[in-house]
């Protein structure tokens, strides 16, 4: 059974104890074996009629031709703000995607189906570390341009920066560790949710490397997921059959993030697996996915330096990968990916300094397929490719052929963002020295050139261009079936956002 594929008795069309379709009943009870609370049981009873209507509506929509379906932009009548709305279901589907996959942030069954679709169709999804709303926008813009899904992820350091360097990382008054890193990741997630549907592509929200010393950050993120799952209560005021019913509460029915990564690769394997199982059991209750790391990714990233790592630790063994797969597959409703080491290194180095061996992934797939009785050629594990920046196209494509469904890219997009700013400064240098006065005249104002939006947009354009190459390398192009996007009509005059051409 494939990683990130739901095993029998777990996430199914009808979850245990719930009599409505999972994809319609976003508020259904967790399926980890815990009994539903009286409040949730009562809510399911009260919500039956609305769920039935939603199900009928879904069946009606399914009769239309898949080829005619298209993720439409928000209309004036239906402004799609998923963070704030009480809408029961996502809007839109894709001609080439499974029914569950929709525009906006995907989680649960939609996430599982999307990643399985990638593996079955021989492509992988770019995963970009973002540190600002600008970098998020650039990545999603690139995804729409390439007619593809995208993964937005945050490291602890990147999330802290997102919250603002003026915010304390640690708050001694309430002993809350990683306060800024938690707040920044949550802020980035809400921003991504607010804009993802507007762009009309599937977005996976993810957090990157979490080592053992960062577990308080991980705990804070899971608390945010659980709060987003069950977000608000409405109390009793009268006995009418309305929103005033006792115990009535609304749920988003999904976690804030699609998935999270635990990187316990520096710990003994047994401890790594034990902690991952413990967290996956908690995450499975809210349909949140787990990525775990096995073996060490070399190089340096976000303050984690593995440049002197033991070379043996850079390459995982099939038996170790199976040990992880076997343990995590036993978690009810759990779904996961494995970042196995096959010589991966963070950063960009001179050619020949990094020796990737994607065949390690192929050997692991064959070993595990035999162990679990899958036919030859099966790919039971969904692998993750860390350290994708600067990698040879041959190694990238080979890794995808062996079951990689996601590749991290950070160093190259950092450079592309900076390069856009650098090019802008070089092009308009004579207009950026003073507020007034340039080659066009000593009394000419330079506001439209030093307006931060001007250089930031140049950085975004440069990043979109670099991302296009990444999508091409991963064969993640035209996989949604939307066709090319329309030219955006958000360009205004100088006083309302117009920028130098």
UniProtKB/TrEMBL annotation:
Pathway: Carbohydrate degradation; glycolysis; D-glyceraldehyde 3-phosphate and glycerone phosphate from D-glucose: step 4/4. CDD domains: FBP_aldolase_IIA (cd00946). It comes from the Eukaryota. InterPro entries: Aldolase_TIM, FBA_II, Fruct_bisP_bact. One of its GO terms (molecular function) is zinc ion binding. PANTHER family: FRUCTOSE-BISPHOSPHATE ALDOLASE, FRUCTOSE-BISPHOSPHATE ALDOLASE CLASS 2. This is fructose-bisphosphate aldolase. It comes from Cladocopium goreaui.
């Amino acid at each position: 059974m494939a990683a990130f594929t739901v095993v029998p008795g777990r996430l199914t069309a009808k979850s245990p104890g719930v009599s409505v379709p999972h994809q319609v009943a976003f508020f259904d009870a967790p399926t980890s074996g815990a009994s539903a609370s009286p409040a949730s049981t009562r809510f399911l009873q009260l919500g039956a009629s609305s769920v039935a209507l939603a199900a009928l509506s879904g069946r009606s929509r399914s009769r239309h031709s898949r080829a005619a379906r298209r993720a439409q932009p928000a209309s004036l009548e239906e402004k799609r703000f998923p963070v704030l709305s009480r809408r029961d279901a996502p809007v839109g589907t894709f001609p080439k995607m499974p029914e569950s996959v929709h525009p906006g942030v995907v989680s649960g069954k939609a996430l599982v189906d999307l990643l399985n679709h990638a593996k079955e169709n021989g492509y992988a999804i770019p995963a970009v570390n973002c540190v600002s709303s600008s970098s998020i926008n650039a990545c999603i813009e690139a995804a729409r341009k390439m007619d593809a899904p995208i993964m937005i992820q945050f490291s602890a350091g990147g999330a802290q920066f997102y919250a603002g360097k003026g915010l304390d990382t640690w708050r001694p008054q309430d002993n809350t560790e990683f306060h800024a890193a938690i707040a920044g990741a949550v802020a980035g997630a809400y921003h991504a949710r607010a804009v993802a549907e507007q762009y009309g592509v599937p977005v996976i929200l993810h957090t990157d490397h979490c080592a053992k010393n960062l577990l308080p950050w991980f705990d804070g993120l899971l608390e945010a997921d659980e709060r987003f799952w069950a977000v608000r209560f409405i109390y009793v005021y009268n006995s009418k059959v309305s929103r005033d019913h006792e115990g009535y509460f609304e749920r988003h029915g999904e976690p804030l993030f699609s998935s999270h990564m635990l990187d316990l690769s520096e710990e003994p394997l047994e401890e790594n697996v034990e902690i991952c199982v413990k967290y996956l059991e908690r995450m499975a209750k809210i349909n949140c996915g787990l990525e775990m790391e096995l073996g060490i990714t070399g190089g340096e990233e976000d303050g984690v330096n593995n440049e002197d790592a033991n070379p043996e630790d850079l390459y995982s063994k099939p038996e170790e990968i199976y040990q992880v797969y076997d343990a995590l597959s036993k978690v009810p409703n759990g779904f996961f990916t494995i970042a196995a080491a096959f010589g991966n290194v963070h950063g960009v180095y001179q050619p020949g300094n990094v020796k990737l061996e994607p065949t390690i992934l192929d050997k692991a797939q064959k070993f595990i397929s035999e162990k679990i009785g899958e036919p030859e050629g099966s790919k039971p594990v969904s692998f993750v490719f860390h350290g994708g920046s600067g990698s040879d196209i041959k190694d990238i494509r080979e890794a995808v052929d062996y079951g990689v469904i996601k590749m991290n890219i950070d160093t190259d997009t950092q450079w592309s963002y900076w390069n856009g700013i650098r090019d802008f400064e070089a092009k308009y240098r004579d207009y950026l020295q003073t507020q007034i006065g340039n080659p066009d005249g000593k009394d000419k104002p330079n506001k439209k050139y030093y307006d931060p939006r001007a250089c930031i947009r140049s950085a975004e354009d440069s990043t979109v261009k670099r991302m296009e190459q990444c999508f091409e390398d991963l064969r993640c192009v035209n996989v949604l079936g939307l066709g090319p996007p329309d030219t955006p009509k958000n360009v205004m005059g100088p006083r309302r956002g117009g920028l130098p051409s």
